[in-house]
Specification:
Length: 186
């Protein structure tokens, strides 16, 4: 997922329509944020599993839990456009003719679990109306351990191209509140 449109509405609708498919959301945890706490409680009450990560957390067990969740047939949703903590592994790609660093984790989860990667956007089209789009399943494969880095880079760049297209089409629905663009590329 990305910080585009209203992913929370999408999560609730997904769980309502696909009650038999377990859904796990990785979410950042900000201290003393009452609205965020209410949001997480609402999602949890809908049967959605939440892993809330604070900005100092980089436990490998969180990733293992996601891989196991995917292997058991569940869906995992994790942000592709925000670096949550300083120790998080990233991939440098091209976005809006700039270098940017994006999280490696969504692509690693797909590669290590064998589960497909879906890129999802939710856009508000009118009052109480949304348009949801999701890509066809993409599989991240590497012939050897040494090829993993390039497979992840290609997948991350494909995501960046799709995010760029979405941002150009819906610029007022991208909720990214920290510096993002790196140096300008030729």
């Amino acid at each position: 997922m990305s910080h585009m449109g209203n992913w929370e509405v999408a999560a609730h609708l997904f769980k309502e329509k696909k009650q038999d498919i377990p859904l796990l959301l990785y979410m950042g945890a900000k201290h003393k944020e009452q609205m965020e706490r209410i949001q997480k409680e609402s999602l949890s009450q809908s049967g959605i599993k939440i892993i809330a990560l604070d900005q100092d957390s980089d436990s490998p067990f969180n990733i293992i839990e996601g891989i196991n969740f995917l292997k058991s047939g569940g869906f995992v949703s994790i942000t592709g456009d925000v670096i949550w903590h300083k120790k998080q592994r990233t991939v440098s790609v091209r976005f809006l003719d700039h270098a940017v660093d994006l999280p490696e984790t969504p692509h690693i989860l797909s590669l290590l679990s064998g589960a497909p990667l879906f890129i999802f956007f939710a856009f508000r089209t009118n009052d109480r109306q949304y348009h949801f789009s999701v890509t066809k399943p993409g599989y991240i494969r590497s012939a050897s351990r040494s090829d993993r880095k390039e497979a992840i880079r290609r997948s991350t760049q494909e995501y960046a191209f799709l995010l760029e297209k979405a941002v150009r089409e819906h610029p007022l629905e991208w909720y990214h509140f920290s510096p993002f663009l790196g140096k300008r590329l030729k």
